[in-house]
Structures are given as C-alpha cells and as structure tokens.
Write a structure and sequence with these properties.
Elements lengths: L15 H8 L62 H17 L18 H11 L14 H14 L8 H8 L19 H14 L2 H4 L4 H11 L16 H13 L24 H6 L18 H14 L8 H14 L16 H15 E5 L5 E2 L4 E2 L5 E5 L26 H11 L4
Antiparallel strand pairs: 1-4, 2-3
Helix pairs in contact: 3-4, 4-6, 4-13, 5-6, 6-9, 9-11, 12-13
Length: about 450
C-alpha cells in the first residue's frame, strides 16, 4: 500500500496496525504473525515530520445501526490544534485506527445491544498459555524479564477464571535456581537480585499457591537483603548499588507485608542506627517528596510525574496506612467503551492500540476491566502497627460487583476480582500473609 505523504490512510485502506503486524519482525515480549519482507511495501510508520498541514484528514465515523455507542466516542475531538507535527499525525492515525471499533462498524467482533464487543475470553486464554511455552530465540533479549512474564500470564489467566495451580511445579522448578543466597530473586540464572523481579516472582508463587511454592522463598535472606537496599533518606534501591525510586518503595513494602517480615533493620543496613530505625522509617516522607508541581508523582524527588510511578507511590502508602478511594460509575462505563472495542486486536488478543499482542498489555487491560467492573470498600481505618511488624491496611478491603441498569457490558464479559493494591486475585494476599504469619520468626 502506498500513501501520499500528506494524507492519512482512509477507512477503505489497509489499517496501519495490520501493516505493522506484518512488517515488524519478532522481538522480545511480542508475537507477530508474519515476518517482514520487502514485498510488504514499507514499514507502515511515519518516517518524518509532515511539512504541509492536513486540511481535511479522513476519518471514519460510521456507526453500527443496532449500536448505542454515544457520538462522543465515534467522532473527532471537538478541539483540535491546527499545528501539524509528527506526533499529531501519529495521533490522528491512531484515531483513524480506533474509530471503526469504537463506532461498532468492525465485523471482527460480536457486539452486545449497547454496541460493545464481547470479551473473546477463549482466544485470550490460548494466547496467554502460549506465552508460557517455548518462545522464539529473539526472546533471549528479554531474559531478565522472565519473572514478569510469569506474573502477567498467571494474573491474566486468573482474571479470566482459569485454574493456574497446574503451573505450580513448573514455576517452582524455574524460580528456585534464580533465588540468590544473599536474598531476593534475579531476572534469570546468574543474575543479581532485583526488587522488581522479586516482586513478580513472589506474586506468581502466591497465585499458584501451596506450601511447595511458598516455601521456596528464603525469608531470612530476603529480610537481610531488603535491609541492604534500605537507604538513610527513607527510600529503597531496586538492587544493591542500583537506582532508588518509588518502584523500589512499593515492591519492598509488598514483600515485607506478604512475607510478614520483621521491620527491624539488620546491622548491615546503610540505614541502621542506634535510634531504632526500621525498614519503614522515613518512607512516607520520601514518597511525599516525589510529588511534582503538576500534581502527579515521579520516580524520585525532583523528576517528572508518571502514571506508573503514581500507582507505585499510592500502592506503597496504601499498605502503610489507609488510602480509600472510589471510582464513579460514569468512569466505569467510559472505560468499558474504550477498552473492549480498542484493546482487542484483529487477532483478538489484547494489545496496545496500534501494535501487536503481548502478555504485558493483556494482563493490565484485564486488570483495568476488573477494576471497572467491581467496587472496593475500605472497611475501617487500619492501625499502623509498626511496632508489631504487621501492616494491616491492605487487608481491610471488601469488594462487590458493579450492577445496575446503566451497565453496558454483559455478564458473560465480567472478569475476576483483583486486589486493588497487590493486583492478584481476591483472597490470595490474605492467604499468603496468613501462611507466613503462622511460621513465626526465622
């Protein structure tokens, strides 16, 4: 397909995402359907800034007659900046790609009476299961991300109601060799321990459950390693000598509470003092310093705000103390209108808006659906029981499904419940913490 330099592809043209899928070679973390070849006719990507403005970009806004999708989701934004840049043209192309799905005109999906596609649960399950099998050689570049693949796949399967206990033996045999005697887990064999990979492995072991899985973890070594990562300013490094940011704060507190670790600092900690400082000393204050002038939360003090870091910061504080929030029903329906039509690709695997399917986006899109379909309540103010070594706030939540006359998705498309702080199936965090609490000290 050949497009004029100053014109976006029309609705009758082959979609950009289809070109992208066919022309982009396999790479770690993604699955493509075809190899790149010269005959495919280009990369499907914008190569340079467009020098001449687009006066009338072509967009499809046709609506499915039986659908009830509001015009807000099927037309162009009412306010548009006339300045044309490479970014704005890429955004226009994204809108062009999404409108057929949002307006209900795509024949790819089965739609309900509200014009919302059904969740293709069966094919998403097949895709995730495939990701835990033998992967192409190109995945070697993502070797350090293997723990995340475990978590993304197992969490995604659980969200869709699949029994993942059958993966227990394989998971245990895989992660046992990558636990270091100094504490924590690396991303792969022979790699140094890292809080992110340790977090992902801990949650994966918790999800498959059972004594065999949970007993893999060396709690005493983990406690000593966390003490080494604890910094005098209150934060945590992600690895020994590595960067210090809110990811480390969140991952560390998740590990501490799920494993029911003591809060006392080991003597080898750089933050140890005779004043009795703990693993949590100065942590809320350090996280607070990550707030930015525009209202978001950054990775570390005096950096740029980011949504992912905001989640880590709020998750960390939610474990420390009570941070209760609710999601308005209007936002719930808006999320359904965007996620189900757009995030399921033509191959019916959840992915980025324009791109190829991967376990990462599959997991978190399903987590977003779960959050939109359920309402969590914080029961009562939890006591910050630092002196007893128990953080109780994240275990004070109860959940109920969103049910009402304005519900725009069918019950067959309801997914499972994920904990709002740990992002694992309901009840798993409580069971994991209870198991380690029953073991007592080291």
């Amino acid at each position: 397909m050949e497009q004029k330099k100053n014109q976006l592809p029309s609705s009758s043209s082959r979609s950009m995402s289809e070109n992208h899928r066919k022309q982009e070679p396999d790479r770690p973390g993604v699955t493509t359907e075809e190899e790149s070849s010269p005959s495919n006719g280009g990369s499907g990507k914008i190569q340079s800034v467009i020098s001449e403005p687009l006066e009338h970009p072509v967009f499809s806004t046709k609506r499915k007659p039986a659908g009830m999708v509001p015009d807000f989701f099927t037309i162009l934004p009412p306010l548009r900046d006339p300045l044309q840049t490479e970014t704005s043209i890429a955004q226009d192309a994204t809108v062009q790609e999404c409108l057929p799905f949002l307006s209900g005109e795509s024949a790819t999906f089965r739609y309900n009476q509200h014009g919302i596609p059904h969740l293709d649960r069966e094919r998403h399950v097949k895709f995730l299961c495939k990701t835990l099998r033998k992967l192409p050689a190109s995945y070697v570049a993502a070797d350090a991300s293997r723990p995340w693949m475990f978590y993304w796949v197992l969490a995604g399967l659980s969200t869709m109601g699949e029994d993942i206990s059958g993966y227990r033996e394989r998971l245990v045999s895989t992660v046992r060799p990558i636990q270091n005697i100094t504490g924590g887990f690396g991303g792969g064999n022979g790699q140094m321990s890292h809080l992110a990979s340790t977090y992902a492995i801990l949650l994966s072991l918790a999800m498959v459950g059972g004594k065999e899985a949970l007993d893999v973890i060396d709690r005493k070594a983990m406690w000593k390693w966390l003490g080494v990562l604890k910094q005098p300013d209150g934060g945590f490094q992600l690895s020994v000598g590595g960067e210090e940011d809110v990811r480390g704060a969140y991952c560390a507190v998740v590990i501490i509470t799920l494993l029911n670790l003591p809060l006392d600092l080991p003597r080898q900690s750089p933050a140890w003092s005779r004043e009795g400082d703990t693993l949590l000393t100065g942590l809320p204050e350090w996280v607070a310093r990550c707030q930015t002038f525009e209202g978001g939360i950054s990775a570390q003090p005096d950096a740029e705000a980011h949504g992912g870091y905001a989640f880590c910061a709020l998750g960390c504080l939610s474990i420390w103390t009570s941070i209760a929030s609710s999601l308005g029903y209007q936002r719930v329906n808006m999320l359904q209108k965007v996620v189900l039509p757009v995030a399921q690709t033509n191959s019916l695997m959840v992915a980025t808006v324009i791109g190829v399917s991967d376990a990462y986006h599959t997991c978190y899109v399903l987590a977003g659906l779960s959050s939109a379909q359920h309402k969590w309540h914080f029961n009562s103010p939890a006591i910050n029981a630092e002196s007893s070594g128990i953080l109780t706030s994240p275990y004070q939540w109860t959940v109920e499904p969103f049910i009402g006359e304005t519900q725009i998705y069918d019950e067959e498309d309801r997914v499972g419940v994920l904990h709002p702080v740990f992002v694992i199936p309901e009840g798993v965090a409580e069971e994991t913490r209870a198991y380690f609490a029953s073991k007592g000290g080291f």
